[in-house]
Amino acid sequence: MDIKESRRHIRIASLNLSHYVCVDKDGEGMGRTLNVSESGILLEIYFPIDMNQELSLAIAFEDTLLDISGKVVHCKAVKGERFRTGIEFLKVDGSDRQFLKKFVKTFREQKMDQAVLETDFPELNLVKRGKVRDVYEVDQDLLIVATDRISAYDVVMPDPVPGKGKILTQISLFWFDVMSDLADNHVISGDPGDYPEICKPYAEKLRGRSMLVKKAEPLPIECIVRGYISGSGWKSYKESGTVCGIQLPGGLKESEKLPEPLFTPSTKAETGEHDINISFDEAAEIIGTPLAEKVRSLSLEIYRKGTELADKKGIIIADTKFEFGLIGDGLILIDEVLTPDSSRFWPKASYKAGGAQKSFDKQYVRDYLVSINWNKKPPAPFLPKEVVTNTHEKYSEALKMLTGKVVLQSEKV
Ligand SMILES: Nc1ncnc2c1ncn2[C@@H]1O[C@H](COP(=O)(O)OP(=O)(O)OP(=O)(O)O)[C@@H](O)[C@H]1O
Ligand SMILES: [Mg+2]
Predict the structure, then answer these.
(1) Residue 241 backbone zone (phi > 0: left; psi -120 to 50: alpha; other: beta)
(2) Do the beta carbons of residue 70 and residue 36 sit within 8 Å?
(3) Residues lining ligand 1, CB < 6 A?
(4) Tens digits of residue pLDDT in 168-213
(5) Which residues pair with 43 in a beta bridge?
(6) pTM above 0.90, yes or no
(7) What is the 331 CA–ligand 2 centroid distance (Å)?
(8) Which structural domain, as residue segments, surrounds residue 74?
(9) Ligand 1, closest atom to CA 135?
(10) pLDDT, tens digit, for every residue of 170-181?
């Protein structure tokens, strides 16, 4: 299809059900479909479009190309230089309408069955859309919904990994339970049947991927524990022999087990920024020494217990990040715990120090992104189907090894 031939200033040509190439007079950008109905389409694209502008769209679906005209009825900047753009279809008749109906139906089915890229629960108060989680306020508590979004280098990919949100939620619930004798945590329930009445209409969407939690004041530091030297720790060690100001013995190899697990905190960056590693003293300056000591010892204890258990199931947890929060004076473990998103998970069977390791986490996606020389700035490139499928497999295997549970890609658990 010749998407370059712009009939009226902008032409939007679909690649498939959820992705679009948008061409304006200055070049082309990418976008994705957030929603579609018979009267219009909601896109997320990387340049603004003037309101009321008429444009032509091409919807490609099942080997057919439908040309329709639309009018921009909404265009609002969202984070990450993206624009949420609503386009109302102008007249669609006869067989074109039939085609559009089928497209809408298939899009909806796919969205329902396969992946949750973004949630929209109009009756609930959305307080934050993180890179992965949509957080709603429900009475005094929070409803945290893990979507299937995947981020790499702090940028959210345009493609979801179907079932990932459920996998992360199930892994976290497993660990919150295992760690409950070491640390109080934020979980009230992971079962939509227990949620307040106002959540009931959304129970099916919420099942498996959500938790009702106690709202805490998150500490402004991330509690990172490293048991093996890898990633930014390895980079720093090669340059200076230290990690976050901690002197390490000479001659360590990449991915080698450290003599003792290290507590290496970082700042908690605002959305779009990167976290910065800090020393323990700097962490103590930010949150006070007594609290810093407490989260250090808790983080190390939780990490130790987690690695012992994971080791028995064939997984090395090389490093991880915890978040703690305060409710009054009470310190609790919040967010997610020992998941492949917050940790490096390596299969024990193939572990060998002296290089990078195979992993159950998104290292696979990172490697793909490096292989295509992406500049790590939005917009992120589309992920090939096999990268999405293999990533699902890896997350899924981690869940299975740890808990015995399975989440299918066309998941209905
Ligand atoms: N019990 C809780 N009380 C308050 N906030 C919480 C609680 N549990 C988790 N959070 C916050 O909810 C958000 C979860 O969203 P997600 O993991 O997608 O964010 P993120 O992109 O990692 O966000 P950030 O960039 O702020 O770390 C995080 O900001 C986390 O700090
Ligand atoms: Mg997070």
Answers:
(1) left
(2) no
(3) 128, 130-133, 135, 142, 144, 186, 213-216, 218, 271, 323, 325, 334-335
(4) 999 999 999 999 999 999 999 999 999 999 999 999 889 999 999 9
(5) 33, 85
(6) no
(7) 18
(8) 11-113
(9) 12
(10) 999 999 999 999
